[in-house]
């Protein structure tokens, strides 16, 4: 048996063959941008009808358009590579598709130009990135390189964004962590006081999904109760800006039952504020509020 200490350096080893259907992260992105994928992606917005009010399609419509495009293309390569979910991603990446108003419980997808009834202006890359960073920091306040990387899932773009816009950024420290803020937001951020109050946040609320270390929002031992496997997120009870529990609700007839599982015992002030928040939710959804604490 060969001595493993004499193995060739990793950079000199012959790469292992990739199994059919397997791909790296970069390979996946290239796969969806090849010619057949672009053909199918363009087929989705083409299948929207001419009238703007009717130019809305659900995921089922996208699947049908994808199948029709496969049959028209007729190539084995195209048939094997195209999935309707990937087609939607490419169409959105190319600027041909965006979310439209819900149709019942189904989301819809629309062509931006037909929904807005005007051409969508195309912004050059540098200007677009600068505007994106302004809006991003205007929404989330501060962000570090790691925060940007996690949000964008692209290390090079995250680094370029921060370096190319350094003239508009101010380095700040938030709870011992270095981050960047936009210069026009610094005074407002410094004047803000800590968050107060109790809120019932839905799953995937921007406050929950904000680009920051999860430990800054929820205790480390409770992270798995909020951020579950397969990308699922549990609705959160927010107390003074921190996750203090999880909650669920069920509307039966005229009664709205809200079940709360606190991470620790709740004080009298928080219990009263929580009851008020449940009443607000019941008024919004329509029903008589019923709060159940599972401690």
Characteristics:
about 300 residues; alpha+beta; Arc Repressor Mutant, subunit A; five-stranded mixed β-sheet
How would you sum up this structure, described in words?
The protein is an alpha+beta fold. It has three domains: 26-116, Arc Repressor Mutant, subunit A (Orthogonal Bundle); 125-191, Arc Repressor Mutant, subunit A, CATH 1.10.10; 198-293, no CATH class. It has 13 helices and eleven strands. A five-stranded mixed sheet has the order 7-8-9-10-11, with helices on one face. α2 (35-46) crosses α5 (84-93). It starts with 24 loop residues before the first helix and ends with a strand.
List the helices and strands and how they pair.
Blueprint: H1 25-32, H2 35-46, E1 56-57, H3 59-73, H4 76-81, H5 84-93, E2 98-103, E3 106-110, H6 112-116, H7 125-140, E4 142-143, H8 145-152, H9 155-164, E5 169-174, E6 177-182, H10 186-191, E7 198-201, H11 206-209, H12 223-226, E8 236-239, E9 242-252, E10 255-262, H13 268-285, E11 288-293
Parallel strand pairs: 10-11
Antiparallel strand pairs: 1-3, 2-3, 4-6, 5-6, 7-8, 8-9, 9-10
Helix pairs in contact: 2-3, 2-5, 3-5, 8-9
